[in-house]
Amino acid sequence: MENFNKAKKNLDLSVGESVRIVRELQELSQNDLAQLTGIPQSTISAIENNRISLGVERSKVLARALHCHPAVLVFPGWDNTEFEAA
After folding, report:
1. What domains, with CATH codes, occur in the chain?
2. Using an 8 Å Cβ cutoff, are 76 and 63 in contact?
């Protein structure tokens, strides 16, 4: 197992793009997600288009509805390799 290459990050995603991708993977429309969360569809659209910030509380609500950890939405480009033990 010593002769392997670490996977490389292929995409830089914004927070809005990560929300949209996870929502679409769940096969939910913005209206569906609005009904599940109580967040207006217009706000979900604004988040996905990076016009407003996600915020901690909304990230928790969206993550619960999308069955993921809030960090998946808030830190889409997180690279933890710089923090791994040497």
Report:
1. 15-78 (1.10.260.40)
2. no
How far apart are alpha carbons 55 and 47 in whole angstroms?
A: 10
Contacts of 60 by beta carbon, 8 Å cutoff, 6+ apart = 70
Q: What does the block give as tokens for 20?
A: 């949209």
Q: Each residue of 9-54: pLDDT tens digit? A: 566 889 999 999 999 999 999 999 999 999 999 999 999 999 999 9
What is the pLDDT, as a whole number, of residue 13? 86
How many degrees, rounded to 5, is the angle at CA 54 between CA 51 and CA 57?
150
> Read out DSSP for 12-66?
---HHHHHHHHHHHTT--HHHHHHHH---HHHHHHHHTTSS---HHHHHHHHHHH
50/15 Cα distance (integer angstroms): 7
